Amino acid sequence: MKIRWSYILAGAVILTIAGVLVREVVAHDGVDEALYDFAVPDTAAVTKIVIWDKSPDTVTLERKGIQWLVNAQYIARHDAIEVILETLYRIRLRNFPQAAAEQTILSAMATYGKRVEIYQGETLVKSFIVGTETPDMLGTYMLMDGYEKPVATYMPGFNGYLSSRFFLREDLWRTRELWPNPEEISRVSLVYPDTGLFELQRTGNQYTLVLGTGAGTAADPMASQALFKAIQQAQYEGMIIPSDVVWGKRDSINKSIPVALVTVTYVGGNSADMRLYHVPGGPDILDGDGNPQQWDPDRFYAVLSDGRFVLAQRYGLQHVLKSFQAFLPKNGQGLSPE
Predict the structure, then answer these.
(1) What is the pLDDT of residues 66-122, one digit of tens each?
(2) CA distance 189 to 196
(3) What are the structural domain ranges in the chain?
(4) Does the predicted model carry a pTM greater than 0.90?
(5) Count of CB atoms situated within 10 Å of the CB of 76
(6) Which pLDDT tens digit goes with each residue over 10-59?
(7) What's the helix, strand, coil split of the chain in %, to 5?
(8) DSSP of 62-92, one letter per residue?
């Protein structure tokens, strides 16, 4: 009798599951798969991504050779490009929302939605609207161009919504490299108003340390290579934009005495510089004795020659802001920055 009841229960479970599957098939029978086919199988062939909303804000990401550009002017963040391409490749259908919720979803899309256009060459291969997140925050409503039915999407292995990956702020798409020029560096000069200046020059594999007097000596090659590599890898924390409070103080900051001036010159003759300025301290920035510090010990305002106004971390510049002593040859004696 017990075995017989087990068979009956197992059969009931199987019938229940089968019923659910049949209802799903019937409910979506005849649905065009293009309704939820948001994925781009060949992201290596993607040449342009355009994102815009009703604000109207627009960002255009375009591949030029091995680089991506933001709005045809600025080098894009490599990591951000990788994230959006991965999203386009892995995005999948999560579920169809209930019919009663569709109008609410579409209304939210009309207000907050972001249109995304994907090009391969001159061909528009995908066009859709990215809407708000699902109530459980694990899916994202999207609407394929040419259709009226929204669907919920997700990315397998990722717990979260996808709308934040399709952002519009130009400054967030731009590379955070302080010196993004890929050319070979020929020399780096550092000026510290309080202590002096020096320049490190490279000719082939040879490095020369030139002090403020113009006197030169062979520089330590390992330390010199480390500086040139640090220049290529240095990044800022975040860009300061007009909506930030400190933006209005930009002119007065520019007129103050910088903490340091770093100028990078490339083999082609181009150069780029960075001027660092103190960030004021505050009641929460205390010294070892618990007293408020005049200046933030961890951050600088940085003004770059290409017009960017950014916040830079001392930690991120620790291998750039070196004293001339760091580059002296091991047997160097008697050199002076003056």
Answers:
(1) 899 999 999 999 999 999 999 999 999 999 999 999 999 999 999 999 999 999 999
(2) 11
(3) 33-173, 185-327
(4) no
(5) 23
(6) 555 565 554 444 344 434 455 789 999 999 999 999 999 999 998 888 99
(7) 30, 35, 35
(8) EEETTEEEETTTEEBPHHHHHHHHHHHHH-E
- Do the beta carbons of residue 60 and residue 73 sit within 8 Å? no
Torsion angle of the four alpha carbons 171, 173, 178, 184, in this order, in degrees rounded to the nearest 10:
-140
User: According to the model, what pLDDT value does residue 18 have?
Assistant: 43
Cα 331 to Cα 38, 253, 290, 334, distances in angstroms: 64, 41, 42, 10
Distance between CA atoms of residues 25 and 326, nearest Å: 71
The tokens for 7 are 């068979």
* Other CB atoms within 10 A of residue 70 CB: 21
pLDDT over 70 for what percent of the chain? Answer: 89
Separation between Cα atoms, residue 61 and residue 275, nearest integer Å: 29
Q: 6: which 2 tokens?
A: 């087990």
72 φ/ψ angles, rounded to the nearest 5 degrees: 60, 15
How many Å apart are CA 96 and CA 217, to the nearest integer?
Answer: 71
As given in the structure block, the two tokens for residue 132 are 């708000």
Q: How many residues does the chain have?
A: 338
* CA proximity to 276, closest of 180, 193, 188: 193
Residues facing residue 292 across a β-bridge: 286
**Cα–Cα–Cα angle for 180, 185, 188, nearest 5°?**
100
Write the DSSP assignment of 181-204 as a string of letters.
Answer: --SPEEEEEEEETTTEEEEEEEET
Contact 250, 175 (CB under 8 A): no
Angstrom distance (rounded) from CA 53 to CA 57: 6
